[in-house]
Amino acid sequence: MKLALQTTIQWIKNDWNSNPWRLAGETWNCVATLTAAIIFALTAPNVPFLWTYPIWLSGTILMIFCGISRGSMGIVVLSVCMTIIDLSGYVRLLLETFN
Predict the structure, then answer these.
(1) What's the chain's Rg over C-alpha atoms?
(2) CA angle 93, 52, 50 (to 5 degrees)
(3) CB–CB of 69/26 below 8 Å?
(4) 62: how many CB neighbours lie within 10 A of its CB?
(5) pLDDT per residue over 19-60, tens digit each?
(6) In whole angstroms, how far apart are CA 53 and each of 48, 86, 87, 88, 90?
(7) If DSSP codes are grouped into helix, strand and coil, which group holds residue 1?
(8) CA–CA gap between residue 90 and residue 9 (Å, rounded)
């Protein structure tokens, strides 16, 4: 267990030294998506999408750049698709709310 913890800490340090902005972006994405998911779960069926969508979108948009930085086509494609889907939902919500 101690070896696994040391290995994980070293991995995080290496990732930070490699690209601190990317690690910060990926960390924000984790915080944002977990926050949005918890809000969704706690407030269903009346989820406050007007302010949870931006939280979620901030993470998916950052992950596009993180995926490019990592050279990960899978992360990039998934993040672009999620951003397009969620952005279209958010735009529809804004148009419905403010029209």
Answers:
(1) 16
(2) 30
(3) no
(4) 21
(5) 999 999 999 999 999 999 999 999 999 999 999 999 999 999
(6) 9, 7, 8, 11, 6
(7) coil
(8) 37
